[in-house]
Amino acid sequence: AQLPPRGVWRAKAGVRYVLLAAWLDRELEPSSAQSADPVGQVLVRRYLAAFGPAASADLRAWCGLAGLPASVTAMRDELVTFRDERGRKLIDLPDAPRPDPDTPAPVRFLPAFDNAILGYDDRSRIIDDAHRLLSVAGERVVLVDGRVAATWT
Length: 153
Description:
By secondary structure, the chain is an alpha+beta fold. Among the domains are: 38-92, Arc Repressor Mutant, subunit A (Orthogonal Bundle); 108-151, no CATH class. Helix content is 25%, strand content 13%. The strands form two sheets. It has a three-stranded antiparallel beta sheet with strand order 3-4-5, with no helix packed on it. It has a two-stranded antiparallel ribbon with strand order 1-2. A hairpin with a 2-residue loop joins strand 4 and strand 5 (147-151).
């Protein structure tokens, strides 16, 4: 775990780490890639509630955790699957709202580093490749019909 504070008022400091067991003041059981990880499953459910349907690669890009495929596999009976235009498998919660594709999307002003863009590995669903660097450069963008159309200040 990274210990707080990383710095104090008007002063920077290096990162300090401590073993998670010491931070929690208890021993941790080793996790197994084959076992069902309830914490990973909660993370998958919360991600899909906000960003689904999505590919497993989108989930991994959003949280940076590589061990979630085991959680997705353990949940396969409670998830629904789809295929996108490119044939990729997308997963979602069965009762999640999925509006008709012809539903108009309102204009939205997104702040810098918004998860609507950063929440996916394949950002082409919301931003053209020519403008992909806007998402990691801290630009605030405007969505028109669900796609990045401009920046704003």
